[in-house]
Amino acid sequence: MKNRDFEPMRQAADLWLETLARMGSTFASVPPGSPPREAARQLRGAMMNAMSEQAEQFMRSDVFLQWMKQSLDRAIDFQKQSRQLLTQMRHGTEGVAVQDMTAIMSLLHQMEDRMLDRLDDLTDRLDRLEKAVAAPAGNGEAKGTQP
Fold first, then answer.
1. 108-117 burial string, b = 16+ CB within 10 Å, else e?
2. How far apart are CA 65 and CA 50, in angstroms?
3. Helix orientation angle between 36-59 and 62-92, rounded to the nearest 10 degrees
4. Any domain includes 83
5. Which of 19, 74, 75, 137 has the highest count of CB atoms within 10 angstroms of its CB?
6. How would DSSP label each residue in 110-140?
7. Does a structural domain hold residue 113?
8. How far, CA to CA in Å, does 33 sit from each of 11, 23, 39, 59?
9. In a domain, 53, yes or no
10. CB neighbour list of residue 34: distance below 8 Å, 6 or more residues apart
């Protein structure tokens, strides 16, 4: 293995070593004569602060962000493969898969839109025809009479 393969592990280890060093310095900072409860409270607070700072620093590091990206990419790939496998299984048993139903619903919606557009066109034509038929009758001329 190359040196660069161990770089992410080295960076993570450095972060944890720094956290442990901070915790150790916290133990040294507690005065010897302080009450046990107060000393424990100070130690706990200092340790939590050190750990939270280190965790935040690690989560903002390139190593962690790269791990998260790879993890999400693998999860998305796994989901795609699972869907493909389930679809193949459904088709293998002569069943209907979700993608088939989605395609049929899409086609039905397209047909519905085309039919509604066509009905709108026919309604417009009928309105124009009604106006054209009503226009001569509105001029005082009787229908069906010859001049």
1. eeeeeeeeee
2. 21
3. 70
4. no
5. 19
6. HHHHHHHHHHHHHHHHHHHHHHHHHHHHHTT
7. yes
8. 38, 20, 9, 38
9. no
10. 42
Confidence label for 75 from pLDDT (cuts 50, 70 and 90): very high
Q: Write the DSSP assignment of the chain as a string of letters.
A: --GGGSHHHHHHHHHHHHHHHHHHHHHHHS-TTS-HHHHHHHHHHHHHHHHHHHHHHHHTSHHHHHHHHHHHHHHHHHHHHHHHHHHHHHHHTT---HHHHHHHHHHHHHHHHHHHHHHHHHHHHHHHHHHHHHHHHHTTPPTT---
Identify the CA nearest to 9 among candidates 49, 58, 42: 58
pTM beyond 0.70: no
Task: Report d(CA 42, CA 30) in Å as an integer.
Answer: 7
The confidence band for 4, taking pLDDT boundaries of 50, 70 and 90, is: low
Look up residue 30 and give its two tokens: 């507690």
The residue range of the domain holding 101 is 96-135
101 domain residue, yes or no: yes
pLDDT at residue 147, rounded to an integer: 47
